[in-house]
Amino acid sequence: MTLTTYCEPMRSVSVDAVTTEHVLDILKPLWNKVPETASRLRGRIEKVLDAAKAKGYRTGENPARWRGHLDHLLPKRQKLTRGHHKALPYNDVPALIARLRQTSSVSALCLEFTILTAARSGEAMGACWEEFDLERGVWTDPKERMKAGREHRVPLSHRAKQILGIMAEIRTGDLVFPGQKRDRPLSTMALEMVLRRMKADVTVHGFRSAFRDWAAEQTSVPREVAEAALAHVLENKVEAAYRRSDLFEKRRGLMEQWAQHCEEGC
């Protein structure tokens, strides 16, 4: 998907004629804007050109090689300015959700589920059916997939459960949101492409910021409840040691309110 999307300008170039200039023309517009995507794209181009050389379709050095080549022409990723993830104002989320529902693709459903649960994209994309208790409306995200390294319970709103119902009807394996291969999850790029096609100037992660702003400005829930919904680790170690509860029941009401807000334009 990444190659098909971003390498369109290079498709007319014979594989033995691809130069460093061609590669830079593809990477430069993305390098600062979406560094993760640009880095993955560079790696994929490098692999394609390596394979072409191995099969005798081209000779010479690989113009997409990083070490000793592109590392002199592009800024190293750790030196890139890492600004905040682009977020959509929370009042604009309902209109985006309404547009999102005009398609029934797995990627669109996964993106909406990610927004509704305020989850990180990797948590939603890797979700397996065994993690869900639909009767109790709970998604138990295992610690292996959590940034904080600990299990996280997510209360499921009415709409989140509807999405799971839709995916259950087309279930092909253990993954709730499978990619093109049923045993592999969707890629982050798949979700980014949904937003790209909608011309939405926002990142998937930015919806977590929208949720946090909405919770702070439009609800009366304490800050720690919203932070718990985002699975953030408390910075105050003393407070963290004393807070034994994950505030699940308080978060249940919050997530239902968030879902209702998201559906205002539907």
Automatic annotation (TrEMBL):
<keyword id="KW-0238">DNA-binding</keyword>
<dbReference type="InterPro" id="IPR013762">
    <property type="entry name" value="Integrase-like_cat_sf"/>
</dbReference>
<dbReference type="InterPro" id="IPR010998">
    <property type="entry name" value="Integrase_recombinase_N"/>
</dbReference>
<dbReference type="Pfam" id="PF22022">
    <property type="entry name" value="Phage_int_M"/>
</dbReference>
<dbReference type="InterPro" id="IPR002104">
    <property type="entry name" value="Integrase_catalytic"/>
</dbReference>
<feature type="domain" description="Tyr recombinase">
    <location>
        <begin position="83"/>
        <end position="255"/>
    </location>
</feature>
<dbReference type="InterPro" id="IPR050808">
    <property type="entry name" value="Phage_Integrase"/>
</dbReference>
<dbReference type="Pfam" id="PF00589">
    <property type="entry name" value="Phage_integrase"/>
</dbReference>
<dbReference type="GO" id="GO:0003677">
    <property type="term" value="F:DNA binding"/>
</dbReference>
<comment type="similarity">
    <text>Belongs to the 'phage' integrase family.</text>
</comment>
<keyword id="KW-0233">DNA recombination</keyword>
<dbReference type="InterPro" id="IPR053876">
    <property type="entry name" value="Phage_int_M"/>
</dbReference>
<protein>
    <submittedName>
        <fullName>Integrase</fullName>
    </submittedName>
</protein>
<dbReference type="GO" id="GO:0015074">
    <property type="term" value="P:DNA integration"/>
</dbReference>
<dbReference type="GO" id="GO:0006310">
    <property type="term" value="P:DNA recombination"/>
</dbReference>
<keyword id="KW-0229">DNA integration</keyword>
<dbReference type="InterPro" id="IPR011010">
    <property type="entry name" value="DNA_brk_join_enz"/>
</dbReference>
